Structures are given as C-alpha cells and as structure tokens.
UniProtKB/TrEMBL annotation:
Domain of life, source organism: Bacteria
Protein name: Type-4 uracil-DNA glycosylase
Domain (Uracil-DNA glycosylase-like): residue spans on this chain: 38-199
Family per record: Belongs to the uracil-DNA glycosylase (UDG) superfamily. Type 4 (UDGa) family.
Organism listed in the record: Methylobacterium aerolatum
Amino acid sequence: PARAVAAMADQDPKSLDELNAIIRKTEPLVPGATQAVLGEGPIGATLAFVGEQPGDQEDLQGHPFVGPAGQLLSRAMAEAGIDRGASYLTNAVKHFKFTLRGKRRIHEKPTAGEVSHYRWWLDRELDFVKPKLVVALGATAVLALAGKAIPITRSRGPYRFDRHDDRFQGFITVHPSYLLRLPDEAKEEAYAAFVGDLKRIATLGH
Ligand code: URA
C-alpha cells in the first residue's frame, strides 16, 4: 500500500476524466472487486454525496448507489426535492470489499487504512467537481472527509470539515443502509429524519 500511495501522489491528473482513468486501471487495495465504481454526476453540481464503498450491485453494475441503499437514497432525495441527476454521487472507497458466505458476497466495512489510501482520490475528485456542499453519508464518509473519526449522532447536521473549509460546506447524516438495517418499528421515524436532513441540505444548496 505504501508504494501505491506514493504512485498516486506522483500522478497529476488534469481533469476528472484523467483522474477516473487512473482509478479505473488501479488494482483494488483488497483483491476481489469486479471493477472500480467511479463517482457520477455533473461537474459543478451544487451538492455532492459521499457514501462508504460500492456494494454488491454497484460492483456488478459499475455505478454508485444502484442497490437497495441507493434506491432508498433516491426515494428520500426525491421526497426532499433534490434532483439526483443534478447531484454528484461518489464513495470514500472505490472498490467493493466482501467476505463470501456460501455464494453471497457480504459487504465488509473498509478499515481506516483503506479509507486513507483512497482519500487522495476523493479529494481530487471534489477539487474537479467543486460542489458548494458535500454530504457525508455515514461514518466512513465522515472519516474520509474529516480525516478523523467523529461520532455521527453528536455531529449530525451542517459540519465544517477543517481540511476542506475553504472549498465547500459540509453536512453529516446517516448512511441509507443504516435505515435498511433498523428494526421495522424504528424505520419510519429514522427515514423521516433522514428526509428532514435532505430538505435542509436542499435549502443550504440554494
Ligand atoms: N453504499 C455506499 O456507500 N455506496 C454505494 O455506492 C452503495 C451502497
């Protein structure tokens, strides 16, 4: 990994396309992923959303937030009046990591070391996209953007990421997959709170 980081720092992509070409041909830090899943959305998007890492469906289809969590995110964005197609969606880590359980590929959370390995890409990506507001979806995105672990429950809402303070406003909320894992009786309220966050995000983006 140390050599990979040095190699990354030597790269000097001049555009998001050049950066994505580098990401696409770089081997996953942990072997297994089908492909790198790149960020998607227009350059100059007002809002950027950062997730954790691609899931099973994202890995197979090659697009971010297309599996169950992504579909929940889409629904919540629509309810909050956010145009998903006008937003930039990406992940802290660009390759799916999993353990096999029978034939099922079970998502495995990236380590802090993996997050910092991929952080250079995320930073450069956001340099090119230049969003006004960046939303961290869950703890891994927070770790990537802040450069340190921050408890989400205490810091949920508008947040100043010191490393990026001159470049964009920040916002911390939960990851949509957290909502999927909640027991049924807690889901509705947590989902409503998530939509509430997205409505605030929409307002801050104006
Ligand atoms: N979860 C994420 O964090 N990102 C995706 O792209 C899909 C699920």
